[in-house]
Amino acid sequence: MTEPTSWVEGASGSLFDVDNLPYGVFSHDDEEPRVGVRIGDLVLDLAPVAAGEMLEVAHAFEATDLNPLMAMGKPAWSSVRRWVTSLLTDEAERPLVEPMLVPVDEVTMHLPVTVADYVDFYCSLDHAGNVGKIFRPDAEPLLPNWRHLPVGYHGRAGTVVVSGTQVRRPSGQRKPPTADAPTYGASERLDIEAELGFVVGAPSELGHQVPVEAFTDHVFGVVPLNDWSARDIQAWEYVPLGPFLGKSFATSVAAWVTPLEALEPARVDLPGQEPEPLDYLRVGPGAGYDIDFEVELNGEVVARPPYASMYWSPAQMLAHLTVNGASLRVGDLFASGTVSGPRPDQRGSFLELSWGGKEPFTAGGRERAFLEDGDTVTIRATAPGRLGRIALGEVTGNVVPAR
Amino acid sequence: MTEPTSWVEGASGSLFDVDNLPYGVFSHDDEEPRVGVRIGDLVLDLAPVAAGEMLEVAHAFEATDLNPLMAMGKPAWSSVRRWVTSLLTDEAERPLVEPMLVPVDEVTMHLPVTVADYVDFYCSLDHAGNVGKIFRPDAEPLLPNWRHLPVGYHGRAGTVVVSGTQVRRPSGQRKPPTADAPTYGASERLDIEAELGFVVGAPSELGHQVPVEAFTDHVFGVVPLNDWSARDIQAWEYVPLGPFLGKSFATSVAAWVTPLEALEPARVDLPGQEPEPLDYLRVGPGAGYDIDFEVELNGEVVARPPYASMYWSPAQMLAHLTVNGASLRVGDLFASGTVSGPRPDQRGSFLELSWGGKEPFTAGGRERAFLEDGDTVTIRATAPGRLGRIALGEVTGNVVPAR
Fold it and tell me: Considering the entire predicted model, what is its pTM?
């Protein structure tokens, strides 16, 4: 079969060709936010096109988040994607569709999903090993449970913000190991974590497990995610109940949600799991994703973390998350944890890139460790698509001083 | 001033007199759920009364959760409470209001609040000390941060269920310390935690702290809460990121939310904090609440935890939760952590009552430790009110076997 080509100027061969088609929520001029799909450097305003064709899905495109579209379930996700593809490739649709294209630099992007629960995992072997060595230099870097289950915890859903939102440096309690008592003040070890977020579209029932095989039935798409972290606050607070204020001040996600279907060509085998996981966590070939991340600090690439190196797959994260019968809701978000590869320039946090601040890295022509006020961090990712490489939405944030 | 007396039969002198007036969401016959207030053994159907008086608040009473009412803010909470009090005490209102009273045993109660984020704290010194001694017998029971900040973590908002919902025994990974590897199976150490939950009504802005003084501006009311816990799952998973699946299968809350205003007469001083907390956590007299809990196992009281013994106050929990600039949303829920007093019969979990299963307690005429299938646990609480004692809504749940 010959691949149909898009009639949209500049789309063919770009990172946002018809094999990508991420969804987002945009507004133009003073109009209400609504659902759009990205093609090339343009956003297609889906609601009027669907309304013009008298399609029932139009109401989902008029929403201010992707939740109603996601709630329609996997068969609808596929049929909507086929419909959008035909709109953008069939010359006959052009007269109707072309007036509904808006340049992406003329729109404001909004948080694409109203987040129900947010769970953050810890699935990179290299990241977990690095953090273990940095925080517990005299002990075994990996804790005993790490190779048996994808370790995770709940984060704050209410402070998930869209790419571009300024991030205020948090204040709180921190206590250096050498101090007698904690003090209050602005975090001095503000960090990033380059992650991949998975957005749940189809819910599940309380008391029922979601098996690894049902992963693509429930997960709608992915977003690059920056899990901003205040390492000094986190180090003091986290025993025994885990990270709390060190993370809850902001988590940034990309404005564009790439459908899982667009990532089918990016599926790869996991690097290998030893020991073999328990039955409910067992996956076959192609459980991983070959996605290349880039971390940019003030416009300069400082790391290139490879998602293909992740130890636990997203299907395993989802199966684990629900093994106790916990239900899923439309808009649940779960993230991979920091993506770090085996090489020093593949580390997805400044904590690792600077080895706990002790081995600064060079950026902007000088030595750097943790985030400074005014820094801008942008995380980008690309993957093999059906026609060429596709770009996932970027996630960017600028650090503003503590209040 | 002479206190007005309610004309509602059986209300005066009961635990649900006009000094209480908790809100809930009920349905009657096959009608849509809506907001009611409890008086004696009756529920007042607020929507038609408010609509009859052409009050704007009627739309909030027609909602299927308390969120719109809570979103109206503290001045509205007070004026609605005054209006409801006048309805139930003024004989002139009786002809209009009496037909809108429904016996509480004829209604179905629903989850009163759509929960935004759920945070669970760990504020009882006795509980934290007991758990430390049970889990880490050779170490200092309290971790270094415990007396400096109210330790907390995010729980799963999507599995907060209303009192009466059956609780299915969760399955998952657990590894006894003596085993070589984890196994999959139903939890063998299912437990309860008797807690008090605080429901946030008024939101706050991202990047802004909520000081201890603003506690009553943001918190609408309280609910007894059972933080069901699978101790074996929790023990294996919780390092280093905290409890996850050991808690996320279900958290039960009372159907009735007692307004904070009703608890004004229950305010007491905290037992005392040493060392003195940092400035942002400093509170004056009356920061605690004198609320007596009862834990019933299959109809028999097995513990009477005193809330007045809690180390950290709810105003401190809220100030800490937002000290990093994390925003609050309407419907946020934060809980105190297990309420345990200094005496053995004041412990709010079976883990403590049975000292890790090693010292069973007696209930139903035999030795008991963790929960068995078929067990019903009910947590009740009362407090001094303006006219006499008031009852907080009870929270009950029945354990059903693993699937």
Answer: 0.98
Tell me: the pLDDT tens digits for B186-224?
A: 999 999 999 999 999 999 999 999 999 999 999 999 999
Q: Could A184 and B230 be called an inter-chain contact, meaning their C-beta atoms sit closer than 8 Å?
A: no
Selecting from B153, B170, B233 the residue whose C-beta is nearest the C-beta of A244 gives B153
Q: What is the pLDDT of residues B341-389, one digit of tens each?
A: 999 999 999 999 999 999 999 999 999 999 999 999 999 999 999 999 9
Tell me the shortest Cα–Cα distance from A202 to chain B, in angstroms. 14
Measured CA to CA in angstroms, residue A48 lies from A34, A56, A97, A98, A267 at distances of 10, 12, 9, 12, 34
Fold that domain B23-110 belongs to in CATH: SH3 type barrels. (2.30.30)
CA A170 to chain centre: 22
Q: Identify the helix (H) or strand (E) that includes residue A95.
A: helix A94-97
Q: Do A171 and B325 touch (CB under 8 A)?
A: yes
pLDDT band of residue A2 (cuts 50, 70, 90) is low
The verdict on a CB contact (< 8 Å) between A157 and B116 is yes
ipTM beyond 0.95? yes
Exposure b/e, A356-373, CB count within 10 A at least 16 = b: beeeebebeeeebbbbee
Domain ranges within chain B, ordered by starting residue: 23-110, 118-400
> What's the Cα-to-Cα distance from A45 to each of A89, A287, A378, B209, rounded to whole Å?
16, 34, 26, 38
Task: Give contacts of A238 with chain B, Cβ < 8 Å.
Answer: 240-242
Assigned token pair, B7: 């004309």
**Min Cα–Cα distance to chain A from B168, Å:** 6
| CATH number among 3.40.50.300, 1.10.340.30, 3.40.190.10, 3.90.850.10, domain A118-400 | 3.90.850.10
Q: Which residues of B touch A184 (CB under 8 A)?
A: 278-280, 323
A325 and B249 in contact by Cβ < 8 A? yes
The tens digit of pLDDT for each residue in A145-194 reads: 999 999 999 999 999 999 999 999 999 999 988 999 999 999 999 999 99
| A127 counts as catalytic | yes
Contact state of B248 with A324 under an 8 Å Cβ cutoff: yes
Residue A322, classified by CB atoms within 10 Å of its CB into exposed (0-12), middle (13-18) or buried (19+), is buried
- Quick check: A1 pLDDT over 70? no
Chain A residues touching B248 at Cβ < 8 A:
154, 321, 324, 326
List pLDDT tens digits, range B8-44. Answer: 999 999 999 999 999 999 999 889 999 999 999 999 9
Distance, CA of A53 to CA of A65 (rounded, Å):
22
Q: Which residue of A has its CA nearest to B230?
A: A324
Give pLDDT, residue B177. 84
The alpha carbon of residue B385 is apart from the nearest alpha carbon of chain A, in Å, by 34
pLDDT confidence tier of residue A77, bands split at 50, 70 and 90: very high
